[in-house]
Design a protein that fits this description.
Blueprint: E1 4-9, H1 17-33, E2 38-43, H2 45-49, H3 56-73, E3 81-84, H4 90-98, H5 104-108, H6 111-119, H7 128-131, H8 133-143, E4 148-150, H9 156-173, E5 181-183, H10 216-224, H11 245-253, H12 256-262, H13 269-278, H14 283-309, H15 312-340, H16 349-352
Parallel strand pairs: 1-2, 2-3, 4-5
Helix pairs in contact: 3-14, 4-8, 4-15, 8-9, 10-14, 11-14
The structure holds adenosine-5'-triphosphate and magnesium ion.
């Protein structure tokens, strides 16, 4: 069986460090590893509209932002197909059939959707499209026969839902769909990168992000005001590393060579943490270290982005081509699905030529 990747992001803003460590960086590594037969990367505009129905302009404007972030990070359109979800209408039809295989109570149990409903104050008025987006995500994944979905931890319930739909579909209509697996980041700090305010998750909707396209000074500002240990008031006070955002980011981004380069008096992150715990190490010093690391990581991404920004029509042309390729693949899956469900009437010669009532 081919090894196929499908992942994506909602065009609700530029991409941030959470996307980068949770999924984007991994996608680039997997793309460059050559270990996958096909890679599809979807800009999920239809999904973004499920909670932005009154603001299509926001979604429209952010398509190019997300595409530029992809290219800047090293997604290569000659090796990965980048496409726009709404330009592949086959996905809607698949979702419509999958809806029959899922119950309302099953959707209500999805912990990620539950949290998101609260975050958006949707409790009393959930748009049906938003409530059912895990089903549409199953359509996105299965349309491309994806075996692997590199994503952050918040996506686990979605992939589980997709797997259930596949099993239910195959059991009901015969073996048709491929069951996907989630590929989580290896580094536990990257599973769900917190926001700079220390809140549970860095998220476009919460405004606690460091964006991949932020300027040098924006990054420094964000790091300076980053949440640390609120009880670590004086340099001499012992500090807490757990739940301290600066240290979580160091867990995610710091590599051994960074010490030699920027903080040679320490040999490892463990040493730095031990000093902070004992007391005598100030937040400012740790933040400066993190700032240097982030600047190093993001500078090449920012400069590549500037290059791609010079030719926006070329980026849209790439997206158009990617969407056409994606549509062809999704249409093949849809044909198979219709055949399995026995709703491909006009291809069924037995049905078309059946002779009823001749011998009565
Ligand atoms: P929104 O607030 O509009 O939902 P978002 O910031 O949550 O946006 P998504 O487009 O929903 O971003 O997520 C895209 C991908 O990035 C998913 O695979 C998700 O798991 C991953 N991701 C997003 N935020 C984080 C994070 N803070 N840590 C790890 N992975 C993340
Ligand atoms: Mg999200």
């Amino acid at each position: 069986m081919d090894k196929i990747i499908l992942t994506g992001d909602r065009p609700t803003g530029r991409l941030h460090l959470g996307h980068y460590v949770g999924s984007l960086k991994r996608r680039v590594e997997l793309q460059n590893s050559g270990g996958f037969d096909k890679i599809y990367i979807m800009i999920a505009d239809a999904q973004a509209l499920t909670d932005n129905a009154d603001n299509p302009e926001k979604v429209r404007q952010n398509i190019i932002q997300v595409a530029l972030d992809y290219l800047a990070c090293g997604i290569d359109p000659t090796r990965s197909t980048i496409f726009i979800q709404s330009q592949v209408p086959e996905l809607c039809e698949l979702s419509f059939y999958y809806m029959n295989l899922v119950t309302v109570s099953r959707l209500q149990r999805n912990p990620t959707v539950k949290t998101e409903i609260k975050m958006r104050n949707f409790e009393a008025n959930i748009p049906v499209g938003f409530f059912t987006y895990p089903i549409s995500q199953a359509a996105d994944i299965t349309a491309f026969n994806a075996t692997t979905v590199p994503a952050g931890e918040d996506q686990e319930p979605m992939i589980e839902q997709a797997r259930e739909i596949v099993r239910r579909f195959n059991a009901t209509y015969g073996d048709t769909l491929v069951e996907p697996e989630i590929l989580l980041p290896d580094n536990s700090a990257c599973l769900r990168l917190p926001g700079t305010d220390g809140k549970a998750k860095m998220s476009k909707s919460l405004g606690n992000c460091i964006y991949l396209s932020d300027s040098e000074s924006d990054i420094s500002k964000r790091v300076k005001t980053m949440f640390t240990d609120p009880d670590h008031l004086r340099v001499t006070d012992p500090g807490k590393v757990e739940g301290n955002t600066v240290f979580t980011y160091l867990d995610a981004f710091c590599r051994p060579q960074h010490f030699m380069q920027y903080l040679p008096e320490y040999g490892s992150l463990e040493e730095l943490k031990a000093h902070y715990r004992r007391g005598g190490l100030g937040d400012v010093k740790v933040k400066k270290f993190l700032d240097a690391i982030l600047q190093e990581e993001l500078a090449p991404i920012r400069s590549r982005r500037k290059e791609y920004e010079q030719d926006i029509p070329a980026v849209f042309s790439m997206l158009r081509q990617g969407s056409e390729t994606a549509r062809t693949v999704a249409a093949e899956t849809l044909d198979k699905v219709r055949h399995s469900m026995r709703i491909d009437y006009f291809n069924d010669m037995d049905l078309l030529t059946a002779e009823y009532g001749k011998n009565e």
